From TrEMBL:
Xref: Pfam families: PGI (PF00342)
Listed PANTHER family: GLUCOSE-6-PHOSPHATE ISOMERASE
GO CC term, one of those recorded: cytosol
Protein name: Glucose-6-phosphate isomerase
Compartments where found: Cytoplasm
Broadest EC class assigned to this enzyme: isomerase
EC numbers, comma separated: 5.3.1.9
Length: 553
């Protein structure tokens, strides 16, 4: 009988980390900083326009070495090389995952089935460039000759979250007069509210779907087309107002999209890694093609950093290893991403899909059940707002929640001294998490402010903050197309490195299919009173009956 392949937990490097965790239990980051005045400098990495300060972690040099040894033993170098080379890294779908090729310069050579895909990628970029120029100049106009003023991007998941994040995050870089609106949800409110503000004569629709089979996207697209025609657009005008980005040319054509208006997607790009392809058209139309290319350049700079830097100086690798450290050795169940930048308000949503759809898995690459935790729950929101909401739990709750703080050194808006205040808030949170406040300090503070001794003693237990809570601070000089590109690519690679250590296929997403399947069985029962037979269980059947009676004419 063949030997069972080694799972990461059986590796000596994993066991060494178990020992390290035992050794570090009871120590504190406060001590680490006191013992090593150089700690802040040593645990700082620059790369691709970003700086990572990871000094506020339960980390020593020994632990960092042990983590790199684990990553090494799990085959990080080989898996990284396979990713960039276009090998089959998405095993269950038998595909490469070549989002890195989407941001490579035109003189590179990356082969899929013998063809250099860089040529196709740059031909598509040139087509996008032509479209953006034609729309911005008014050369490509609506059916009554009026210049397009609005783009409605219809797509969901990866065909929505990345473009929306980038469009909103780079508002200071918007060019031209086109404003983008996103429709994702099958909740009719989303499309009804969006269309109610628009003029069909000046609205361009982009149907964004890698598969062109996604129910939400197809139903919303049909509604958009009906609305367009009901408001004066002739059938023939659909051709000039509807574009699609998809791998499924046949379905898009059947829907009525002019083949000349279909931009390609490729099965070697995963949905959640696709904003760099023509799925990025909402970005290019809102920001202009130069800024879109700058975004690609920023991501490419991060790709080179990830490919070339040694593990302990490699931003995505260090962040991934720290995540594994807390997830698997300290019992952290979630990870928070807290950007101190209003423009990055959609980052946590994008990262939720990226990270949780990628690493929310329970079998290893060869299909064995894992005996360790995989992807944690990723959540977050913008600072400083979160400080007045959920940070209490981070500081004094019973759970360990590592946090990534993200902040640009310069703001796009010189409003009074807001940016200094914002920066102070970000630093204060990281410091409070790290240093906390001892009971004695809390008590002394109260005594100093005149509180009597007995009250001070009683309240001190409530005011004590344990500290020793880990956080990273990620910085860039300014949030711009290059640094945003690098930031998103950094999280893509962080996700990949985690999957290497956990031995997962991070490029498939079979778990989301069952819900779609069941939804398709329930829908006819909601729409058709005559449809009999159970939908599978009495609880579902009961609510189907409730829905029907609430919606009977
Ligand atoms: O439901 C999950 C998913 O398959 C995502 O992975 C994908 O990004 C999204 O649906 C949308 O898929 P498509 O682009 O094919 O419409």
């Amino acid at each position: 009988m063949a030997d069972k392949p080694a799972t990461p937990t059986h590796r000596p490097q994993w066991q060494a980390l178990v020992q390290h965790k035992e050794r570090l239990t009871g120590t504190s980051m406060r001590e680490f900083f006191q013992q090593d005045p150089e700690r802040a400098n040593r645990y700082l990495i620059d790369g691709a326009g970003l700086t990572l300060d990871f000094s506020r972690n339960r980390l020593t040099d020994d632990v960092l070495t042990a983590l790199t040894e684990l990553a090494d033993a799990c085959g990080l170098s080989q898996r990284k090389a396979a990713l960039f080379a276009g090998d089959i890294v998405n095993i269950t779908e038998n595909r490469p995952a070549l989002h890195t090729a989407l941001r490579q310069p035109s003189d590179e050579d990356v082969r899929v089935d013998g063809n250099n895909i860089i040529t196709e990628i740059h031909t598509t970029l040139a087509r996008m460039e032509k479209l953006v120029a034609a729309v911005h100049s008014g050369k490509q106009a609506g059916y009554t000759g009026k210049t397009f003023t609005d783009v409605v991007s219809i797509g969901i998941g990866g065909s929505f979250l990345g473009p929306k994040l980038v469009v909103e995050a780079l508002k200071p870089y918007w060019q031209g007069n086109v404003r983008c609106h996103f429709v994702a949800n099958i909740d009719g409110t989303n499309i009804a509210e969006t269309l109610s503000r628009l003029d069909p004569e000046t609205t361009l629709f982009l149907i964004q779907s890698k598969s062109f089979r996604t129910q939400e996207t197809l139903e919303n697209s049909l509604v958009a087309r009906q609305w367009f025609m009901a408001h004066g657009g002739a059938e023939a005008a659909v051709a000039s107002h509807f574009l699609a980005v998809t791998t499924n040319i046949a379905e898009a054509t059947r829907f009525g999209i002019d083949p000349g208006n279909i931009f390609p997607m490729w099965d070697w790009v995963g949905g959640r890694y696709s904003l760099w392809s023509a799925i990025g058209l909402p970005i290019a139309l809102t920001l202009g093609m130069d800024h879109f290319r700058a975004l690609l350049n920023g991501a490419h700079a991060m790709d080179c950093h990830f490919r070339d830097q040694p593990a302990e100086r490699n931003l995505p690798v260090v962040m991934a290893m720290l995540s594994v450290w807390y997830n698997n050795f300290w019992g952290a169940e979630s990870h928070a991403v807290v950007p101190y930048d209003e423009y990055l308000k959609h980052l946590p949503e994008h990262l939720q899909q990226l990270d949780m759809e990628s690493n929310g898995k329970r079998v290893s690459q060869n299909g064995q059940h894992v005996d360790y935790q995989t992807g944690p729950i990723l959540w977050g929101g913008i600072g400083a707002n979160g400080q007045h909401a959920y940070h209490q739990l981070i500081h004094q709750g019973t759970r360990l929640i590592p946090v990534d703080f993200i902040i640009p050194l310069q703001s796009h808006h010189a409003v009074a001294h807001h940016h200094a205040t914002l920066f102070a808030n970000c630093l204060s949170q990281a410091r409070a998490m790290m240093a906390g406040k001892t009971r004695a300090e809390a008590e002394q503070e109260m005594l100093d402010s005149g509180v009597d001794e007995s009250t001070a003693k009683t309240l001190a237990t409530h005011k004590e903050i344990p500290g020793n809570k880990p956080s990273n601070i990620l910085m860039m000089n300014r949030l711009n197309p290059e640094t945003l590109g690098a930031l998103i690519a950094l999280y893509e690679h962080r996700t990949f490195v985690q999957s290497v250590i956990w031995d997962l296929d991070c490029f498939d997403q079979w778990g989301v299919e069952l819900g779609k399947q069941i939804g398709n069985e329930i829908l006819p029962r909601l729409l058709d009173e005559e449809k009999t037979g159970s939908a599978g269980d009495s609880a579902t059947d009961h609510l189907i009956r409730r829905f029907r009676s609430a919606n009977r004419p």
